[in-house]
Amino acid sequence: MRCVFPGNITNVHYSCSLNQLFATGPTRGIDLSGYTHMRIHVAHNGKTPRRIRVSLRNFAPAYSRETDTNSSKYHAVILRSEEINRMTSIPIHDFTVSDWWIDQYQIPRSQAQLELSNVMNLGLDFFDSLTPGDDELELRHLEFTGEWISKETWYLLILGCWMAGITLYATSRLIQLNRQTKHDTQVINSLHLDKQKLQLETDKFRRLSTVDPLTQAYNRFGIDQIVTTLMNHSELQTTEAADFALMVMDIDHFKQINDNYGHDLGDKILQRIAHIIQENLHAEDFLGRWGGEEFIVIQPNTSKEFAMALADKIRQVIATTYFESGNTVRVTLSVGVGERLIGEDFAATFKRVDEALYRAKAEGRNRCIMV
Questions:
Q1: Could you report the per-residue pLDDT of 316-370, keeping only the tens digit for each?
Q2: How far apart are CA 167 and CA 364, in angstroms?
Q3: Going by fewer Cβ within 10 Å, which terminus of the chain is more open, N or C?
Q4: If we measure between CA atoms, which residue out of 90, 56, 59 comes closest to residue 74?
Q5: Are 356 and 337 in contact (CB under 8 A)?
Q6: Sheet holding 17-21, edge to edge
Q7: What are φ and ψ of residue 211, in 5° steps?
Q8: Which helix (H) or strand (E) holds 194?
Q9: Smallest Cα–Cα separation from 335: which of 361, 357, 351, 353?
């Protein structure tokens, strides 16, 4: 562009400008909002250095009218004389909205900010007043540059990556902890099962140690434990009621049964008699096999009179029971019955009741004697 200012012109407002259109339609320009710098090379040839004004016009329906090109927002920046005739990089944020445009169109403060989302054209004009003579103005290079990703976006990406890393690490740790928890749970469950098995085995051996395997009645060791518990409990009692009643039973002529019919039948008779006795006892009573063909019954909180009645009932049931399929074998039972006296130890009680048993034997067997 070449401007000639004749010397005979006295208009001090004589101006000369150059416009580069960006518009692709009446209201459609280009979006420069994503750029950070404008690289421009403006060449000037004249008698004196000039300052050049670079302007960008942005169209927006909020304040622009299609019929008034001046209504597009006017942004401007000044190129100093040393920035002319060379490539110059101008930060986009150096452009400012001109006050004359704000005043002329009464633009509110909210719309008076930098806005380059729909730029219609770029303008070049002399900022200083022209003097008579020839001035040439040429736009040799124009380029808009920007970051592919803005700093803010970079920060967001870094923050996102950091958060993703933290999330990934946390997820990995959760998975690891979950696996460890599952493993620990399996170990705990395994230990629990082992404990249950051990408890079952312990109960099994405890039962084997206290129960007679043939009759399933308590053995001597089991009866001793029961007696110890009852004796300890009796020390806390303040009443004069009997602590327990005691029966000592013996199968009459049991050796002859083994000799005449064999030990297999003898074992069956022991099992059957133990079963009959147990069926007639209360839930809180205890039956034990004292040895061989001798049984013992302990009845807590029971008088000897009640025990005597129960012993005689059991004796009668056994006396009328056949113990062999041919209905040829019957046995009888002799019983001694008594109760623990106050302050008496178990050995003394057992001795008295055992003596009653021998009296029953001596008096003809198949009877109960109470002491």
A1: 999 999 987 676 889 999 999 999 998 899 999 999 999 999 999 999 999 999 9
A2: 94
A3: N
A4: 56
A5: yes
A6: 17-21, 119-126, 52-58, 73-79, 96-97
A7: -120, 140
A8: helix 151-210
A9: 357
